[in-house]
Amino acid sequence: MKLDRLAALCLMLAIAPVLFAMETTAPHWTIVAIALVAAYIAICLRRTGFAARMMLGAAILTSALYVMLGGTASGFIQVVRQTIYLPVLIGVLVPLRVVAMEAEMVKRAGHFVVDQPPSRRFALLAIGGQIFGVLLNVGGLLILLHVALRGPMARGPDDKVAALQTRRITIAVMRGFGANIFWSPLGLGLNLLLTLMPTLTWTEFAPYGLAASVVFIAIGWLVDRLQSPPPPVARKAEASGEGWSLVGLLAILAVISGGAALIETIFGLPLRGAILVIVPLFAVGWQLAVRSAERAPYQALGELLDKTVRALPGASNEITIIASAGYLGLLIAAMIPHDAVSQLALGLGLDGGLLAVAICLLVLASSLAGLNPMIASTISVKAVVSAGLAISEPLLVLSVLVGWALALVVSPATSTLAIASSVTRKPQSTVGLRWNGAFCLAVLIVAMVIFLEIWP
């Protein structure tokens, strides 16, 4: 227990040097931050699974290769500076998850999006998948799937109607969850990619991301309707939750995003840094707002601190995988000769829309082959930016995110598919390519048309 508390303390202390590292090019704050995160991972290593340890081992071996090939200390510091934000972001999201997991608003919103007539169920489940995914990450996916499938799963695998409902509910939640990667200011994917962009900020990319999210879900809804037309007379359902609870969760996301933007404007802190400040502050405020009248504020805050300290070591598996994957992708990209990338792109005639299509397909194909999409995404973006290839920054980020979002619903290398497969008790091949293959193809076709013909 003492070691777990020490690990939690290391991760919480890493917030400050990460913030300072954003404001200065001096390497010492980055070194302090990576030392604290490394201490956290080392202490919690016994809690991690096989996949996390393999990813960590690959990162260590790649570091040794980097040194053997003559990699510079400054190059290493730059890779670490771009990677270190991710594990700290996961850490600051923990108190928010602690409060949200016990909030009645979240429970009522979950029941509301589930207990809807078929005509509205896909849209609300997809929206719920986004909101729960932003607030709770994969924990939100797990909660929503459990709530949504409690009825169909109880009727057994031989019930054809239940089997159809299980498939439709699952794909709606998965596609909604996958869509939040395009815009979420708390998302790991977008935050990682923006650190690699020379000038692009979240505020500048948000309109593209929100539009992509809408198109992604709209295609998902259309494919679902074509594959499973609604019955002539839809069954009416009484919603056991409250629609205002869902609106309340949307308001929470708006407050967090708006608060981060306000901090950025007033103090000049990058939005990514502002997120590290506003999220724990909001968690504290939420905890105080929902406390019972019998409990003093200090008791509510003490409970939140205690639960956060207990929960942080439990996030070690996720943190180890995410940190190792991001670091691995960036370090591999740093070892790829820029001239070789430029010559390859020139030889294949890849630029603009055609390069975007190639990157999107590369991320998706490599994830289907078993590679974590974060690795392929960071390698692609870092290599393209370093080589100075002709593609706009929003298009580059969007092309990667399309491939990444599709990987979340079809790739065995993602936790999304693993969770959905476990909850539905279906093979990953069924939940992935069989249930989402046609949707994946449809999104790819639309993306190619936009990248090649519509994008300015």
Automatic annotation (TrEMBL):
Keywords: Membrane, Signal, Transmembrane, Transmembrane helix. The keyword Transmembrane helix applies. This is Uncharacterized protein. It comes from Ciceribacter naphthalenivorans. Coiled coil: none annotated. The chain crosses the membrane at residues 31-49, 56-77, 83-101, 122-149, 205-223, 243-262, 269-289, 319-336, 348-375, 395-423, 435-455. The keyword Aminoacyl-tRNA synthetase does not apply. Residues 1-21 form the signal peptide.
